[in-house]
Structures are given as C-alpha cells and as structure tokens.
Amino acid sequence: MKVGVFTPLLSQLPLPAVLDKLKALHIDTVEFGTGNYPGDAHCKLTMLDDAKALAEFRKVLAGHGVAISALSCHGNALHPDPARSAHDRDVSRKTVLLAEKLGVPIVVDFSGCPGDSPKATAPNWVTCPWPPDYLDILQWQWEEVVTPYWKEHGQFAADHGVRIAIEMHPGFVVYSPETMLRLRSIAGPAVGANLDPSHLFWQNIDPIAAVRRLGDAIFYVHAKDTQLYPANLPLTGVLDTKPYTDERNRGWIFRTCGYGHGAEWWKEFVSTLRMYGYDNVLSIEHEDSLLSAEEGLTKAAAFLNDLVIREQPGAAWWV
Predict the structure, then answer these.
(1) Strand 29-33 to 2-6 pairing
(2) Assigned CATH for 2-318
(3) Is the pTM of this model over 0.90?
(4) Is residue 142 a contact partner of residue 136, using CB atoms and an 8 Å limit?
(5) pLDDT digit string (tens) for 112-167?
(6) 3-state class (DSSP) for residue 281
(7) Crossing angle, helix 207-214 and helix 177-187, to 10 degrees?
(8) Phi and psi of 190, rounded to 5°?
(9) What DSSP line would sit under 155-169, residue for residue?
C-alpha cells in the first residue's frame, strides 16, 4: 500500500512544483482532477487530441519519478438540467478515455443525483421513506435515470479497460455501502467503491465494518478524517447543513488524517483493507477548514507514511 495525494489542494502551483513538493514528503503517487467539481488544474482533457501536450505531461511525470493512481471527475451526470448533465457526462467519458491512454486503471466519480421528475430543475436527494411521495421519487430515480445511465457508462468503462470508483457521498444516490452495492449490481464489475472514511463517519457508518461488507468492490481509498462534536450533535443531528466553516456550531467537520481518529483506528483501517485484498493507494484529500492546505498535507503525509511502510521488493507489507 502507498500514500498518494489528490492534487486539487495544490491547484495554485504549476505541475512541476506540485511534484517537487510531494517528493519532498516521500510521495510519488498522485491523483489528478480532470474537470467537474475537482477542476483540471494539472491534467487537461484536451490532451486527448493534443499529442504534444500529452507527451510533455508524461515527460514531466517521468522526470519526477511520479505515477498516476487515478483520474477524478466527480460530477453529477444525472443532474436534471440537461446542459449540466451533458457537460458532466462528457467529462466522465473523456476522463475514461484519457485514463485508457495514460494506462491509469481507476477513474473516481460520483454516482450523481436526479431530480424528482422529468420536469425537475434541481437534484432531489431522498433521505426518508415517508410520506410515501419520497419512495415514489426514489423508485423513479433508480429505474428511469440511474439504471439506464450506469448500465451504459459501466459498460463503456469496461470496454476501455478502466474501473470507475464511486465516492459514496451524501447528496447523491450512492452514499452508503448498501447503495454502492445496489449500483454495482446494475452497472457491472467495472464499477466499485472509492472508500472515503470521512463520508461514512458522520453518517454513523463504521468504515472498518464497511470494508468487510464491500470487500473486493473497493477499488480506491481517499484518506480523509472527520471529527464529531458530541456537544452539538444532539441539536444538529448528522444532516447538518451549516457551512463547513461554521466549526463551532456544526455537529461534525472534515479533518486531516489523525485529527478525528488516532493512529490506532487508522492502523486497524489499513490492516482491514489489506485483509480484504486492497493493496493500492491511500490518496490524501484535504478539506480540513481548521488547517491550511500546507499544514493539512504535511501532517497527513507524515501521519500516514508512519503507518504504511513498504519493505524491499518481494517482502511483506507491515502496518
């Protein structure tokens, strides 16, 4: 297992400077955004039709001894606004094609969230079964929007030798292991999970138990933590819609690895991932509003590198 970094937190820096910074932190694996929510600061989809730019991109990576672990295009391909869904679908398809061209095995994405009907203009995330209108909406979403798109897109990825890792995130139809496995049963084996423990903690889903339930459906892992605030949770509940920067009043916030749960928890998490066959990257994603990007990255890299140690080639991993 290796420690990597999802690079949008360094989007203000040119690519060579990003790679130099990461090498200094003993990191030689990166995840690039290609558009939609992460942006495309360091990896442009225009390289699909620009052989010179693609060759230069590869040269910079090779010169720094850095490999790409995944391309990320988190968007909402199921958005009820036709222009928005068309844009996000196009980015997702082109990201799969660029991953194929670069020999990158994983594309990270969201499942998306439709509206409540063909006339909707905004997504509608259903969180309860009553009044019964909500179950009618949920059935319509899965049968009429989710299933047709993901059957086609899952096959598209498979045809190009790429696997899509869905980030389980509230606000989208896939937000839990159960909904992840439901989508996988529809989309096929080329679609699996990007397991980000931070999104499970605040739903009161144990990420380690989730590893055991998902097993080989885990394609990728984001390394991010969550801190729960018991003093606020009785008032807010977990569906807290206050801004992430309102840390004093929220029931939880995203934290840098080790600031929500200590080394003992992360050791067990990494060990359970290994037990269930995951031997890929822990990709650091910084969304900690109490630490700068520089602080968060540096602390997360030191914390995770201390937990995940690679022995000589052919030897075992030790956690």
Answers:
(1) parallel
(2) 3.20.20.150
(3) yes
(4) no
(5) 999 999 999 999 999 999 999 999 999 999 999 999 999 999 999 999 999 999 99
(6) strand
(7) 20
(8) -80, -5
(9) HHHHHTT-EEEEE--
Beta carbons of 105 and 99 less than 8 angstroms apart: yes
Phi, psi of 222 (to 5 degrees): -95, 135
The predicted pLDDT at position 310 comes to: 52
CA distances from 41 to 36, 218, 265 (A): 11, 27, 33
Residue type, 135: L
Instruction: Answer whether 4's CB lies under 8 Å from 43's CB.
Output: no
Task: Identify the burial level of 51 via C-beta atoms within 10 angstroms of its C-beta, where 0-12 means exposed, 13-18 middle and 19 or more buried.
Answer: exposed
Helix locations, the chain, DSSP H: 15-24, 51-64, 82-102, 133-140, 147-159, 177-187, 197-201, 207-214, 233-236, 263-275, 293-307
**Strand, coil or helix: 233:** helix
List the one residue out of 28, 56, 27 whose CA is nearest residue 43.
56
Structure tokens at 73: 């295009």
The closest of 84, 239, 251 to 170, measured between CA atoms, is: 239
How many Cβ atoms are within 10 Å of 53's Cβ, its own excluded? 13
Q: What is the number of H-type helices and E-type strands within the chain?
A: 11, 12
Single-letter amino acid, residue 288: D
**Chain segment 265-288, per-residue pLDDT in tens:** 999 999 999 999 999 999 999 999
What's residue 308's pLDDT? 87
Q: What is the pLDDT of residue 309?
A: 57
Q: Is 122 helix (H, G, I), strand (E, B) or coil?
A: coil
User: Which pLDDT value is given to residue 311?
Assistant: 40
Question: Distances from the Cα of 7 to the Cαs of 120, 178, 280, in angstroms?
Answer: 34, 29, 17
Query: Where do the structural domains in the chain lie, given as residue ranges?
Result: 2-318
